[in-house]
Amino acid sequence: MSFVALACLLVALDGDTLRCGAERIRLIGIDAPELPGHCAKGRDCAPGDPTAAQASLAALAKGSAEIERDGVDDYGRTLARVRVNGTELSCAQLKKGHAVYRSEWDPYGNVTVACGLQVVEPYVTPVRSEARRTKRHSPSDQGVFRNCAAARAAGAAPLYRGQPGYGAHMDGDGDGIACEPYRGR
Q1: Where does a domain end: 115, 146, 174?
Q2: Measuring CA to CA, how many Å separate 74 from each of 26, 41, 58, 95?
């Protein structure tokens, strides 16, 4: 498969779905937070702010778009990778923290390669050069930071459930956000 130009105005329906005319396009490999009322009962939906994820995708979707189609899902949406002005939208949403990577939604590993991800099940971490990696500031062999001090030192805090380096042991209030700043009451 290869990328082909899209001749339409892209509209962000949420943080991982676009509309191009009548075609609904689901970005492969990522899961963004669901808008209120859209997370199916029993489903493990991505944490975070759905409005911010949608706004981020809307901003990224402005410009010259290309698509690499990869089938259709159970909801009739086109499964695809989309680039706008050369930026891979799945990668940009991951980098901005508005989505989590789902390997089961990236069957050929195309998003893994395009985004430079290193899969350490069940977490995903960006591939970094060994020169920049230090024992103290990098996630352990399980892909989880040892503590919040290490996550902050690496510039990774706060961490959201499903993101690289997240560990429940750092999420004191159990809200899915680890190493968050104290907000007071």
Answers
A1: 115
A2: 11, 17, 24, 27
